[in-house]
User: What shape does this take?
Amino acid sequence: MIYPDWPAPDTIKAISTTRQGGFSLPPYSELNLGDHVGDNADSVAQNRESLILQEYLPEAPRWLKQVHGTTVSIASTWQQGDEADAIISDHINQVCSIMTADCLPILLCNQEGDQVAAVHAGWRSLAAGLIEKTVAHFNCPSHEIIAWLGPAIGPSQFEVGNDVYHTFTSHSPHADLAFQQTDSNHYLANIYLLAKQRLNALGVHAIFGGERCTVSEPAHFFSYRRDGITGRMASMIWITPK
Assistant: This one.
């Protein structure tokens, strides 16, 4: 497990899984938490139950059906099968969860420790304003929000085309700083920097994490870009009683 190194209040608990320590067989080995990728259903169920027990989760994670959109699910009205790419809660013991295998997981909390969110920031959702929509749900000034960026495809691995480059730079010319051109049609994109720019523009400056690359660490992380058929990690956050 990865435990975010960030100055979150004591009431906030957060974890991000790796691929290690579960029951799935190759190519999903070992701790695959995705039930939509072709893995054996019993193995996925065993992995999820093991996670609950090992990390003393107060409930089963509130999983989303992620569609690379901008819908934010409200945890108190969440239902199994909700199509959303972020989930937010201001109640204790509601485990907000998103799954990734190269996309950027973002965990958010406020300084008071009474509101949290988990965001599945693939480039499409990021460009379309998912971070902005999630931050808008917080009941505090944006400068009081703390963010942690989990493992995602790194800037030396994320090759994209002109379409992605122009999508971001048309929104903000500063996005150009997150792209390194490799030829006339391709760039290496820094999704961590793109997310930081969006957060900074909203007034969120307490941003931590963003050092791990899912593609470059096959022993630790699933990567769709690297392997195609693969499992999913999860990033989770919840509020504990004071």
